[in-house]
Every structure is written in structure tokens, then in C-alpha cells.
Design the sequence.
């Protein structure tokens, strides 16, 4: 009988509505927190290698004259020749950079992983890797733009 009286009181109903709203708000907060965590996780991975190659003070690739890139660890240019496991690219300043490609190198065109054999002469690429003693770049990641 007391339980029935609980739903007849306006204060009790208002309290239950308030409790329900509070539970919904906490649930939404937890979902937002999860989404934020995933977003930060993605952006930190992007910042790790992508920002250095694809973004500069001039914008996204279109007006990238070379500043803002880490010399020796990244390169941007068009494929000039492919010799086995190495790729020579012609940079914007007319120079040539040798890129060494290994089995661990990830090569992407749009959202697809491609093989070294899928690269074509003239493809515009951005490379991130480690410098070699010879001056070449040991590629870890190559982005193909066409």
C-alpha cells in the first residue's frame, strides 16, 4: 500500500523524473567521453606522422613549398623512376630523393593499401621514414595522391 502512495505524491513523481533525467544525462556524458577518447586517440596517431607531411602554414598540399617538413625524414614529390625496392622522386625544387621501400612500408592511395608495383611514374607521393646513411629515406609510410 505504501508503494502505491509513492506514485500518487507529486513530489515523488517529480523526484523520479529528476532521477531519470539525471541517469540519461550521465549516460550521454559517458558516451561523449568515449567518443572524445576515440577522437583524441585518432588525432594523436594522425599528428604522429601525418601533420609533418601533409600540412604546413600554407594549407593542405596545394601550396606546400617544402617548409614545415622535416628534412631528411620526409619527402614530397612525383615518382621519377622505380628500381626494385627503391623509388626516386622528383621534388618541387627540382632535386631528386631516393626512397627505400621494405615489406614493412605501408603504401596508401585514398583509403586502400596498395603494393609497390601499383605505383606509376608521375604519381604524386608523400613519404615519411627514417634517414639512411646514404641520404635516402627508409620509408615507413607512403601516401599516393596521383
Sequence:
Amino acid at each position: 500500500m505504501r508503494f502505491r502512495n509513492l506514485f500518487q505524491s507529486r513530489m515523488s513523481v517529480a523526484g523520479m523524473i529528476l532521477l531519470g533525467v539525471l541517469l540519461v544525462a550521465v549516460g550521454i556524458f559517458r558516451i561523449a567521453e568515449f567518443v572524445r577518447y576515440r577522437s583524441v586517440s585518432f588525432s594523436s596517431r594522425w599528428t604522429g606522422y601525418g601533420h609533418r607531411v601533409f600540412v604546413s602554414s600554407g594549407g593542405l598540399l596545394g601550396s606546400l613549398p617544402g617548409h614545415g617538413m622535416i628534412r631528411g625524414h620526409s619527402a614530397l614529390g612525383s615518382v621519377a623512376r622505380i628500381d626494385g625496392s627503391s623509388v626516386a622522386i622528383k621534388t618541387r625544387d627540382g632535386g631528386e630523393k631516393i626512397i627505400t621501400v621494405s615489406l614493412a612500408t605501408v603504401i596508401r592511395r585514398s583509403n586502400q593499401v596498395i603494393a609497390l608495383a601499383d605505383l606509376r611514374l608521375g604519381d604524386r607521393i608523400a613519404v615519411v621514414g627514417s634517414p639512411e646513411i646514404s641520404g635516402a629515406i627508409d620509408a615507413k609510410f607512403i601516401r599516393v595522391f596521383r
Remarks:
- The CA atoms of residues 23 and 29 lie 10 Å apart.
- The mean pLDDT is 79.
- Residues 1-146 form a domain with the OB fold (Dihydrolipoamide Acetyltransferase, E2P) fold (CATH 2.40.50.140).
